[in-house]
Amino acid sequence: MPQNYLGEFYSFLRFPSVSTDDEYKANLVECADWLVNKLGSIGLATQLVPTRGHPIVWARNKHQPGRRTVLIYGHYDVQPPDPLELWDSPPFEPVLKDGYVFARGATDNKGQILSHILGIQETIEQNGDLPVNVHLVIEGEEEVGSVSLPGFLNENRDALKCDVAVVSDTGMIARQTPTLSYGLRGVTAMEIKVTGPKMDLHSGVFGGAVANPITALAQLLAILHDRDGRVAIAGFYDRVKPLEDWEREAWRKLPVDGDKLILEETGVPQLFGEAGYNSIERIWARPTAEINGIGGGYQGKGTKTVIASHAFAKLTFRLVPEQRADEILELAKAHLRKNLPKGVTMEITTGHSGPWYITDPHSQLGEAAQRALRKAFDREVALIREGGSIPIVSQFREILGIETLLMGLALPDCRAHSPNENFPLENFEGGIRLNKAVLQELA
Ligand code: BES
Ligand code: MN
User: Quick one: which of 415, 412, 409, 384 has its CA closest to 261?
Assistant: First the structure.
């Protein structure tokens, strides 16, 4: 691998492009500008498309009639690096250790999308052109639900007319194991705020006579699930399609022990989840309700005898076929309202949603993707579903009428969204080979 590839990867990683926090807005623009320069320098016509949020980077080669057109999608925004104290090295100062690059965004998604860019660069250097027409669309809002991208797709629907999307923003089930993902879970978000007294109160003077909003919130959150890990919201599973035997069998034959892997990677004392399913089935094919954040009351050092005025929690639900986000939010609201303890009020706000996705890995394009994966990694391809979500993928289908080939390069221990996120150079190089192979196969 040429030495400057690593330098360019580091430059890309040094931008703290955290999309959820407006404090970083200028950093996202700088990061997008860097991409525009990079893509322009390899000969692609590139533009920065402003949005109400973070800008979209859009590049294309010279399109020729009669060739397939491929949309390569990725994102340059990253998740917040917090909690900072759990990182072994600063999140936006990339370092290489034992063949792994450590930084926020190394895997999700900068390493993966940059490997595609470098694959395109190499092909152009070697052949003067690509074998297909290409659109590269790299957005800055994936980690906040791709708010502006559907508008961009709609506005540029004709210009973006293409045959298929290629996305490397999913997982590889094990090292050196090429993986085609044919399913994603959906996601939908809400925030609950529980209010008790109009101000924080002395817990000795008032405690016992007024409801404590933190207690009320804890009671609500505790009845989101039953003791066996099933979501206890009435109607939650009504549309869930049962996992079919052929798929369970296929997953059991994959060259990984999901339960063991998750125990080791997470450090939990034991596995827990919905009864009747193993870990892989729970993650890929079953819906969840997760509490992602909780707050209220005194968070400083020592003790403060207080009854807080408010408490809040942030929730997301992962969705599977055929669940609908708006319906799940309504069911959840009804469940929370019905069970709201006395003496407090509750406000619920809903956040972003993205639908689940299922495609056929054996379609003509799916088979082309499998050939490319085999070529790039010289191993049999694992066909999997994923627990994570990429909301825009179902919009590609709805707005552009295309299917998406999900060819991930993230390893199970890449620590996406966690401290010490990392990407192995092996996969960076594999991604470059994959890009070349897939454009060839799709041609
Ligand atoms: N790359 C992930 C999605 C992913 C991870 C898919 C692992 C499959 C396996 C993506 O960047 C991501 O984190 N998406 C968010 C979407 C949400 C913020 C709308 C997610 O899944 O939480
Ligand atoms: Mn992510």
Answer: 412
